Structure prediction request, 81 residues.
Amino acid sequence: ASTTLVFGAAYTLWMVKRVYFGAVANEDVRALQDINAREYLMLALLAISVLVMGLYPKPFTDTMHVSVTELLKHVAISKLN
Prediction:
């Protein structure tokens, strides 16, 4: 098991080296540009939304509360029959 772990770690490091620091083989990929301001703004909005949902999920769980309660009632009734 330890040999497999060492080989797995070595392969992962080799793969990361090739992906991040290796030469670009495809010309289409080489022509790609970095992220522009509009894409950066969208990424920032999504990241902020995810953080807000993670730190304060109450508004989202309150929205789902009614439908989840009804679903649980339906499941409970179907298990009784």
